[in-house]
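User: If only I could read backbone structure tokens as easily as an amino acid sequence. Underneath my words sits a plain record pairing an amino acid chain with its backbone structure tokens. This is the protein in question:
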Amino acid sequence: MAKVGIVPPQKTGPFTGPATFMNVPFSTDPTGSHAAIIGIPFDGGIHPTRIGSRSGPAAIREQSLLVRPYQPPHAAYNPLELLNVVDCGDADATPAVVEESFEEIELAAFTIISAGAAPLALGGDGMISLPLLRAASRRHPGLAVLHIDAHTDTYRGDGNATHNRYNVATTFTRAAEERLVDLEHSYHVGARGPVMVADVFEHTRENGYNLIDGRDLFSQGLTQTAAQLKRHLGDRPVYLCFDMDFFDPSCAPGVCTPTWGGASAREGLGFLQALSGINCVAADINTVSPPHDLGGMTAFLAATTALEILTLICHANGLGQSK
């Protein structure tokens, strides 16, 4: 595989290929890769004040050209090369068209999974995790979800209307109802106020999830929390869902629902590094909203987060080493 990182775009004759994450090769066939990038240019179109995460994948790919592949001292190797990462392009999703887009997203993700690669999805709003979980659960029985977010996204969502059942606040309510994950070993980490419903944390636990809220997370410490998670998750297959509003708006302003009191960039990236050893089989990074970003800083941080997740996938495949 050719060297990747800060390199010129791929070129075939007089033409250059599509923009990809960190200029990895573009391919719709991830056979032989341990991980593959997939863009999910989708949002539900019903956020009351901020719509724009449908443009997230393109922004993350653009800013990823600032990211270098080596991360000494904890990862002095190139995870893109070790995993033979390819970028499969975008799922054929249409913003605000929910059921049809969910079918396309699930199909695209399962195509990657069936080829033996771990999909790393670039969102897109928090709704994208549901079809991605549907795809991952088909291949990985006993799948646990590790949801790192300022919100639990486990609201009730009562009613039969599509926008009531499927929105950014009900993703993990539906996942529990559909029995997509092992609830006993699934976690929401970092949820904090303010919120729209007073008992949402209680409702999250009533659904069967473990919840480590923001107060407990920062009181206990991120490194200690990561160690606790690793002990409880063991070698179970893990779907890692990372919402960029886990970070404080001071370092990630371009998100759909910014919430003060979150992690700094150093804390959030360090938390991911401390999770080394979990069996990460699929992941997504969601809620980057370019129209609300400042100088691309949220998309840049999301691209760096993606590299950290690829490093976790390296460890899950016995590749690379921690120092």
